[in-house]
């Protein structure tokens, strides 16, 4: 049987279609066990995101990247979406990598990599875009601040995603007791955060550096910082320093009035016992220093130093007592109390000795033995011997009397 030319052409076309279908089925069988592999990506706004899709084994099956709106970005090495920010990094049977530069918040979402097997297999990769917080600013400070006034400093930053963290420091020491507020921006993607530092101004805060620090994962461990130097005005603090802790008559004493305040206090005022200095010739004031020469007892009294500035005034007192150098020397002589104690002991010992001696004599009272040197043996008694002794001038020197 002889076929017509038209029928023959249709026969060849049908054979070709069958061959293509068979080839596609063979490719599908080879890639049927494979799945595309992707990873989630986090990038800072304005940076570049790299999206990679890999297949370990692939029999020339096509790979494709699609954006969250399901628009094809790349099909193998062919660019499908006209966006100059999107570029091909690598295209092979095992990998399809693309990059998105100058990333915006609107680029965030779920991207899809497709492997065109039968059926098509897909893998998802979520692109997270971090919103960078704006540089913080501190508001609420008016210079100068009076001591005792309440200060409220506010630090604010916008555009962070997720919401940034704010911390306060005073001279590098963190202040914990602060207020924190978070608000969603108009784009409903980023946040504005603010924090308020509330405290009473103190003179110790004058010159202190208050800093507001913004921490966020998009800043790569380099926080953004805003600083404010405090200026506090306060009344003078006054103190008198003496050059001599034991002033004596004839000496010179120097009293220095130290005054610290802001603004700087005016020249100090010296007074004595509530009035003017009584002897300007010996009591000389030079700035904050009072010098008194040739001290005497009339200089005793209360000396006051007063300092003032536009904020207020303050004063302090010093009580001067001039000492007699002679009295001081007498105090350094012999210790009369010690001498008196020694004398008392000696008297006590003497009295005890006398008492003991008297008692001894009382026990041995009235025994006398008279022994004559010559003729005593012939006397019948002691009285006779005495009479004989008195009558004999020759032997008078030889008579001896013993007291027992």
Which percent bin holds the helix content? 10-25%
Count of strand segments = 27
**Strand order, largest beta sheet:** 1-9-8-3-4-5
Please indicate the percent range of residues in DSSP E strands (runs of 2 or more). 35-45%
* Averaged pLDDT: 83
In whole angstroms, how far apart are the ends?
195 Å
Low-confidence stretches: 1-31, 366-376, 389-404
Number of helices: 4
Major beta sheet summary: 6 strands, mixed
Our Rg estimate from Cα atoms comes to 59 Å
Shape by Cα distribution: elongated
Based on secondary structure, the structural category is alpha+beta
Word description of this protein:
This protein is α+β, with helices and mostly antiparallel strands and 404 residues long. 18% of the residues lie in helices and 40% in strands. The strands form seven sheets. It has a six-stranded mixed beta sheet with strand order 1-9-8-3-4-5, with no helix packed on it. Strands 11-19-20-23-22 form a five-stranded mixed beta sheet, with no helix packed on it. The chain has a four-stranded antiparallel beta sheet with strand order 10-12-16-15, with no helix packed on it. The radius of gyration is 59 Å and the shape is elongated. The N terminus and C terminus are likely disordered.
Topology readout:
Elements: H1 5-31, E1 41-44, E2 49-54, E3 63-66, E4 72-75, E5 78-79, E6 86-91, E7 95-100, E8 109-115, E9 121-130, E10 137-139, E11 145-146, E12 150-160, E13 165-170, E14 173-175, E15 179-184, E16 191-200, E17 209-215, E18 224-229, E19 232-242, E20 253-262, E21 269-272, E22 283-286, E23 289-292, E24 301-309, E25 312-320, H2 325-331, H3 336-363, E26 368-371, H4 382-391, E27 400-403
Parallel strand pairs: 1-9, 11-19
Antiparallel strand pairs: 2-7, 3-4, 3-8, 4-5, 6-7, 8-9, 10-12, 12-16, 13-14, 13-17, 15-16, 17-18, 19-20, 20-23, 21-24, 22-23, 24-25, 26-27
